[in-house]
Specification:
Blueprint lengths: L3 E6 L21 E3 L2 E2 H9 L5 E7 L3 H11 L2 E7 L4 H12 L5 E6 L7 H10 L1 H5 L3 E6 L10 E7 L9 E7 L4 H10 L2 E11 H11 L1 H12 L2 E3 L2 E3 L2 H5 L6 H6 L5 E6 L9 H5 L10 E9 L5 E12 L4 E5 L4 E5 L6 H10 L10 E4 L2 E9 L2 E8 L4 E6 L3 E9 L2 E5 L2 E5 L4 E4 L5 E5 L5 E9 L8 E2 L16
Parallel strand pairs: 1-4, 1-6, 4-5, 5-12, 7-13, 14-15, 15-16
Antiparallel strand pairs: 2-3, 6-10, 7-10, 8-9, 8-10, 9-13, 11-12, 16-17, 18-19, 19-20, 20-27, 21-26, 21-28, 22-25, 22-27, 23-24, 23-26
C-alpha cells in the first residue's frame, strides 16, 4: 500500500469565531467537540493513514500543538513558521524538506469530519491520480447554497486511472454571492472546496517553479539551513519573512492544468462561523441550540454558547449569543460572517480582548488574569506536574504568591523552599526567582503583582539553572 505522509496546516486565527477564538488561542486549539479541540480530532483522523505526522505551526503555538500531538498518540514533527505566509509558503517548505517521491496529504487543522473511515477511503482513492502527476484536491458534496465556501467545478472523469479516480478540475470558483450559489447548486457538478490536497513533493515543487517561482525560492532559502530542536524544525526567519503571502489555490491550483478532484460524501464542516458551530448541536422543537450553561426560553432559532456561567435567551429570535469570561457577542444569525469585522474594530480601538484571552496557555500550564487596577494585578497560575517557570526577574514589580493547591518549590535569589497549600511567599522587586511544581498533581497559585509597571514585557529570563536543594533552615521574607 502506498505510504501517505499527512501534513497538518495549523495556521489561521479563526476571527469569525471571536470571542472564543483569538490570536493567542485560535479555534483549532479550542475544545469545541466532546471536550476535544479540532487539531486533536484531525490528528486522530490522520493517524488512520499514518502515525507519523508533520504539523506546520506558528512559533507561539508550538506547545499547544505538541499537547495535541501527545494526546493523539502520533509521532509528530513541527515545522515552525516565524511569520504567517499563507498556505503556498507552508506547503512549499514542507515539499522542499521531503523526499521528492513522498506522497504528501495537506489538511487543515480546524475541520470537523466525524466519519474518519470514509474520509480515509476517499483520500486513498486519490492515490492513482497523485502518482500520475496530478495535484489532487478534495471537495464536499454541497447540501445548501453556501456563500462561505469556494467551489470546484468537476470536469471529465479520469477513467484511464480506474474507477472512482476522480475528475479533472474544470474551474475553481471563489466564494459566490447568494444568487450564484443557488445556480451552482442547481447546476450540479460542483463541490465545496475542502482545502485538502494530495500531491507528490516533486510535483508540487514543479508546479511552484512554474507558477510561483518567487515563493519557491524564498522557501528554498528559508529551509536551506533549517535547525532541528528536538521535534521542532526552525527555518531562517529573514528568508521566510521575505516570502510573498498567498494561498495555494491562487498561487498554483487555479493556474495548473493537471489538477484533479474527488468528492467526499460524508459530513464535513470547516467550523468557520458561529452558525457552523451551532449546527454541531441538536436543536429543540423551536430551532434553538444551546451549549454549556446556555438556556433558551420562549425563543426561536437562537444559539447560546455559555461554557462558564448561566446565560438565558428569553423571547429572542434568530440570535447568536456567545459568552466568555471577558467578552460577550450578541449577533443576528445573518451577521455571523461579519464577526471578523468586530475583531478589526476592537483591535483599532486598542482592546486587548480582540486578540488575547483572559486565560493564557503557557508551556508550563496557564495563567488567568482575574483582576487588575492601579498598581496591582491578580492572576491564577496553574502549573503542570513536573513543570516549571524558567529563572526570571522583574525590574518594576513585586509578587506575592499564595498556594491554594499542590506544593511549589520556589527559588528566590540563593534560597529555595517548599511552599505548601495555604502558605505564601513574597518575591521582591529585582529578585531572581523560579517556580516549580514539586508534586504529582496540578499546582494552583494566586499571584498578586504590585508596582508602578505591570506589563508582561517586564520579564528578564535567564538560562535554566537547576533548583538547589530545599533549604529548610533559611526562610524567605
Amino acid at each position: 500500500m502506498t505510504v501517505i505522509r499527512p501534513v497538518v496546516l495549523c495556521g489561521g486565527s479563526g476571527t469569525r469565531l471571536w470571542p472564543l477564538s483569538r490570536q493567542t488561542l485560535p479555534k483549532q486549539f479550542v475544545p469545541l467537540i466532546g471536550g476535544k479541540n479540532l487539531l486533536l480530532l484531525t490528528l486522530e483522523r490522520l493517524r488512520l493513514l499514518n502515525e507519523e505526522v508533520t504539523c506546520v505551526a506558528a512559533e507561539e503555538h508550538r506547545f499547544l500543538v505538541q499537547e495535541s500531538i501527545e494526546a493523539a498518540h502520533v509521532c509528530g514533527k513541527q515545522l515552525l513558521e516565524p511569520v504567517a505566509r499563507n498556505t503556498a509558503a507552508a506547503m512549499a517548505a514542507v515539499a522542499l524538506l521531503a523526499a521528492p517521491d513522498s506522497l504528501l496529504l495537506f489538511a487543515p487543522a480546524d475541520h470537523h469530519i466525524p466519519d474518519a473511515d470514509r474520509f480515509v477511503k476517499t483520500i486513498r482513492k486519490g492515490v492513482p491520480a497523485a502518482l500520475a502527476g496530478y495535484l489532487v484536491a478534495f471537495g464536499v458534496e454541497p447540501t445548501f447554497p453556501s456563500t462561505a465556501y469556494g467551489y470546484i467545478r468537476q470536469g471529465d472523469p479520469l477513467d484511464t486511472l480506474g474507477t472512482d479516480a476522480g475528475h479533472a478540475v474544470a474551474a475553481f470558483i471563489e466564494k459566490p454571492a447568494a444568487p450564484k450559489a443557488e445556480q451552482l447548486l442547481l447546476a450540479g457538478g460542483h463541490l465545496w472546496n475542502a482545502g485538502i490536497l494530495l500531491v507528490q513533493a516533486k510535483v508540487l515543487i514543479a508546479a511552484l517553479e512554474q507558477h510561483a517561482p518567487d515563493i519557491l525560492e524564498a522557501c528554498r532559502l528559508a529551509t536551506a539551513a533549517v535547525e532541528a530542536d528536538g521535534d521542532f524544525l526552525r527555518m531562517d526567519s529573514a528568508a521566510f519573512g521575505r516570502c510573498r503571502s498567498q494561498s495555494i489555490d491562487y498561487a498554483v491550483l487555479e493556474k495548473c492544468e493537471r489538477v484533479a478532484v474527488l468528492p467526499f460524501q460524508g459530513r464535513w464542516s470547516d467550523v468557520g462561523s458561529w452558525n457552523a458551530v451551532a449546527e454541531l448541536h441538536t436543536p429543540d422543537d423551536h430551532g434553538n441550540r444551546v451549549s454549556g450553561q446556555g438556556f433558551a426560553m420562549g425563543a426561536h432559532n437562537t444559539f447560546v454558547y455559555a461554557p462558564d456561567r448561566p446565560v438565558v435567551a428569553l423571547g429572542t429570535k434568530d440570535l447568536l449569543v456567545v459568552d466568555t469570561p471577558d467578552a460577550l457577542l450578541v449577533a443576528h444569525i445573518n451577521s455571523a460572517e461579519q464577526v471578523k469585522d468586530v475583531v478589526a474594530l476592537l483591535t483599532t480601538r486598542g482592546h486587548s480582548q480582540a486578540t488575547r484571552h483572559r486565560r493564557i496557555p503557557r508551556p508550563w500550564g496557564a495563567y488567568d488574569s482575574i483582576d487588575d487596577g492601579e498598581r496591582f494585578a491578580v492572576k491564577r497560575l496553574t502549573v503542570k506536574p513536573g513543570a516549571q517557570l524558567a529563572l526570571r526577574m522583574h525590574h518594576h514589580r513585586a509578587e506575592h504568591w499564595v498556594v491554594v493547591k499542590g506544593t511549589a518549590r520556589v527559588r528566590c535569589d540563593d534560597r529555595t523552599r517548599l511552599v505548601k497549600e495555604n502558605e505564601s511567599i513574597y518575591i521582591p522587586v529585582g529578585a531572581m526567582y523560579k517556580l516549580e511544581n514539586a508534586g504529582k498533581t496540578l499546582l494552583e497559585v494566586i499571584e498578586v503583582q504590585t508596582g508602578g509597571y505591570l506589563g508582561e514585557d517586564d520579564i528578564v529570563r535567564f538560562d535554566d539553572v537547576p533548583l538547589p536543594a530545599v533549604d529548610r533552615e533559611k526562610k524567605l521574607a
